[in-house]
Structures are given as C-alpha cells and as structure tokens.
Amino acid sequence: MDFRDAMLSIKARIDIEDTSLPISLPRFNEFLGGISDEEMYLLFGATGTSKTKLAIKLFVLDLLNQYLENPDNDFHVIYATLELSATEIYYNIFCNALHRQTGNNYSIKFFKNKIQDDPLTNDRYEEFKLIMPWLKKLDKKVTIIDHIKQPSKLYQYIRWKLNNEWGTVDETSNKYVKHNPRKKIIIITDTINALQKDTEDADEYTSIKRWSNYYCKQLLKMFYKCSIINIQQSDKQSTTVQYTGKGERIEDKFIPRVENLSTVKTTPDDHTTVISIYNPSRYGVSECEGYKVGPLGNHFRYLNVLKNSHGDENKGVGIYIDNAHLEAVELPRPDQIDNLCGTLSLLGIDYLSRPGGFGF
C-alpha cells in the first residue's frame, strides 16, 4: 500500500457519500464524530451505571430509528451479551418500544410477572401487536446472541456473518469488500470481563486480552473495517468507600479511571475511543462536574471521553436517563441550567409527574 491507496479511500467515501452514524446526544456526538468504520470504542464503569442500557439505547434503538427515517444510514449490529440472557436484552427493548407506542410504564419486573398489583394478562400481551412491525425491522438489523462465550468462537461466528451475509474477501487484493459500502457493521460485546477462557489460553486474562488486541483490533477493525464497542467493568476496589485521616470521605475515589478497569487494564491501548460512565448518586455524591446531582438522583449519569484518537479528550456531558424505558437525554451545560425541572420540561421530560415511575 502507498499514499495513492489512502487517497483512493477518501475518494471512495466522497463517491458513495459515506458518513458516520450520528449519536443521539448532540454534544457527545460532536466530541466523537459519530460511529465510524474502523474504530474501537470502550465503554466502562462500575456496577449500577447503566452501561448495558445505554449501549442498547445509543447503539441499537437510536440507530434503528435513524435508519427507518433515513435508509442511507444502513447498519447491522451483532450484540454479544455475556452477562444477561438475550431474552433480558429483548425485555429492555420491549420496555422502550411499548412505552413509546402506548405511554404506559413497563419494566423487566413486569415482563417477569413479579408485580403483584400489575400482573401479566392476555390483554397486556395484545399490546405487542402495536410494535410488531417495528420489531420485525429490528430483527433485520440487530442480531443478539448469548450462547457464545469464548473469544475464538465469537470471532468465528462474526467472521462467518461478515463473509457470507455482508461482503466477501477479494482474492486479488486480499481486502474485505462489503456488498453495501455504506453499511456499518457494529460489534458490541457486553461485557468483555465475562468472556471465558479459550482452550489454548492459560487463563481468562489472556483470552480477554487476545479478544481486544487481536480479534477486535487487528482483524475485525483493521481488516473487516467494523465498528467495535466493547463494554468493560471497573474493579470493585474502586467503588469501596475510603476516608481521610480526618474521617472525611474521599469522593474523588469513585470517579471512573482507566487504571481501575477490571481483569485486563491494557484494553484502552487497543481502542481509539475510551468513554467512562459515572453514577454519582450511587455513592451519595451531590455534585459532578458542575451538575447538581440531588434533584435527579439515580436518573443522572456523566459520560466522559477519556481517550479520543481523533479529537479532544476529557470532554464530558451530563445525561438524564430513564433506566426502565431506555430513554437518555443530554443535559445542557451546568452554567446553562437555571431551573432543573424547567430545563427537563423543555427537553420533553415531565420529571415531576413520574416520580418513582421508572422501575429502578
């Protein structure tokens, strides 16, 4: 390869009008430049930060709805869920789709028939007819799997899909050629901590490291030009309360840092973008990067871009999140918020009328 090949790749993007897929959080989208081919994104945080729900919202639901409005934004997601069953992932999706269609409240507990004063009934089941056309479109664009746990087997499955459904390897150039050059292939692994040891590896550490460095970076990203989204857990020690010699709690300890990643701490080196997600209310922290957390409580999250190979780093946004229905709305900058409830109302969030109605 020489400079001419690199120039041709630019010309090809111009010819097919290839652009990144937008993220539904405006300032955050500006930081990242959308979701692009040949990129790796690492989303990490502690337990209880809504990593899975946010991934489903931003990289499954929003992308599908954008595609339905503009079919040029073609994509396919392979969502490998390693900690939750595929059924539970679909329950989350049902909550969002049914809530948008009916305005009623839903939760995982509801679909598991665990709410005594609101049991499952055939009448409620009939509501699925309202979203069935949308679900059939989802089925064509999103593949959710929960039966593959080892990195080598997961890669083999993805490679088969790439070579048999979305493109082929040109034998002359030894390059992967997609049937639709504009289609983005997005691989989500949730979470990589739960990957199991490959037979030839000594331990899980080696297998997870190989997944990130070899299968994702060298093969899926560099050869197949996929967009990779890996979700990783922070270690439990980083969320343990500590105090100063004066007995004051150290609140900065809870802020997500790459050195606190669980199992394998070198994964950020493989990724072009590293994003932390922080839930300050979980630790009783009242302020985060200028945002007053108290009024929103467990509905507040802070997303921070800790690494960005193509842009600014240490850029963050506060978001309002409804975990039950997978709604996420970017909040204005703290200095632009005079009245929080009024701001939420302008964003289309009737916060006061829904206290406790989110199924946490």
UniProtKB/TrEMBL annotation:
<protein>
    <recommendedName>
        <fullName>SF4 helicase domain-containing protein</fullName>
    </recommendedName>
</protein>
<dbReference type="InterPro" id="IPR027417">
    <property type="entry name" value="P-loop_NTPase"/>
</dbReference>
